[in-house]
Write a structure and sequence with these properties.
Number of helices: 3
Helix content: 10-25%
Shape: globular
CATH superfamily: Jelly Rolls
CATH class: Mainly Beta
CATH architecture: Sandwich
CATH topology: Jelly Rolls
Distance between the termini: 23 Å
């Protein structure tokens, strides 16, 4: 039975369920058994139901990459979130036009697709100060929700390096420092359960315009009603998938 505040979340237990096989690049469907993936998915659903029913107080945050983030757990360098994607999101701030933002995390990412389809486009970044396509920007995120995007002097070429489609029940991994862009299928929202663990010495980075400027932004925290509406919509889609 759930505790009054909602189900307890154990990062290490979830990590054992979803730990993918080693291998280069974002790789869907690697590693965990269907039973382990189902167990992790059930736990994510129990959290969403606790939020929808008022048994757990949790506010969604609008992420600069275009999705809603539900911060389920923060435990030192470890964290668990649920990401809710609307159709066409996955690019956003710092990108060029409507192109998805190519970025690299300072943390390891293991993600279970709860519903929908998520595509990760890998990008190989080659230093090239002579004929670059992008400048590298460092992203520093504060505990107050502030994101500082800082210009660096590193100029690179971004070379497409394959992609992986992940659908409901798949698990994919993105390692620290791997540049990629995440998109969802047009007209089809998606949701993922995300485990992250910050790696010492790593930085959050993104690719941007050669002549672009740094900037500062503050992530918007959604109110209770908006959060519940988004969570209930996700639960309906999960229920429809299970049915």
């Amino acid at each position: 039975m759930d505790a009054p505040h909602g189900p307890d979340i154990d990062y290490d237990a979830l990590r054992r369920l979803l730990a993918p096989d080693p291998g280069p690049g974002p790789s869907p469907g690697a590693g965990p058994s269907s039973a382990d993936r189902a167990a992790a998915g059930d736990l994510a659903v129990s959290v969403l139901r606790a939020v929808a029913e008022g048994r757990r107080s949790l506010s969604a945050v609008r992420h600069p990459l275009g999705f809603l983030c539900l911060p389920v757990l923060r435990d030192g360098t470890k964290g668990v979130c649920v990401h809710l994607f609307d159709a066409g999101t996955g690019g956003g701030e710092g990108g060029e036009g409507d192109a998805p933002l190519v970025h690299a995390h300072s943390w390891s990412l293991v993600s279970l697709v709860l519903f929908g389809q998520v595509t990760n486009h890998s990008v190989r970044v080659v230093d090239d100060p002579v004929a670059p396509t992008h400048r590298v920007y460092e992203v520093r995120s504060g505990p107050d929700g502030t994101d500082e995007v800082l210009r660096t002097t590193r100029f690179v070429r971004g070379v497409p390096d394959g992609f992986g489609h992940s659908t409901t029940g798949d698990v994919y991994v993105v390692r620290p420092g791997e540049f990629h862009a995440t998109v969802v299928a047009d007209g089809r929202p998606a949701a993922t359960l995300v485990l992250g663990e910050t790696q010492p010495g790593s930085k959050d980075m993104s690719l941007g315009l050669l002549s672009g400027e740094g900037h500062r932004s503050v992530r918007e925290i959604c109110g209770r009603e908006e959060t519940v509406v988004a969570v209930r919509a996700a639960l309906r889609r999960i229920d429809a998938t299970d049915g």
